[in-house]
Amino acid sequence: MTASSHWSSFEANGDQIQDQTASECNREFDLLQRAFDLYSEGFSAIPRSGNDKAMVARLALLSQNLNSFHLMIHSASRGFYIQSLVPLRNVFEN
Predict the structure, then answer these.
(1) Residue 59, Cα to own-chain centre: how many angstroms?
(2) In the chain, which end has fewer C-beta atoms inside a 10 angstrom radius, N or C?
(3) Is 70 exceeded by the pLDDT of residue 72?
(4) What is the 3-state secondary structure of 56-87?
(5) b/e per residue 48-85 (b: at least 16 CB within 10 A)
(6) How many CA atoms lie within 13 A of 84 on its CB side?
(7) How far is CA 67 from the centre of its chain?
């Protein structure tokens, strides 16, 4: 088996796992989606006035956390449950 065929097989299994996870854990993923929506609303509510370096740092950190949160949801839905906890830790620590 070549590396590319192995990867294609892995991706096909990921799609199947994602469908199964969505059907079996729809309440959990609904909760995650609502939390993500709330987090992104907070991001859009931050005032962007001024050129303060601290404000730019806060926005950058919040943007990074938003991306990590999105990655966590996507990873968990693809079956990488344990691995999805790593980016989630950064979201809550920051």
Answers:
(1) 17
(2) N
(3) yes
(4) HHHHHHHHHHHHHHHHHHHHHHCCCCCCCHHH
(5) eeeeeeeeeeeeeebeebbebbebbbebbbbebeeebe
(6) 15
(7) 6
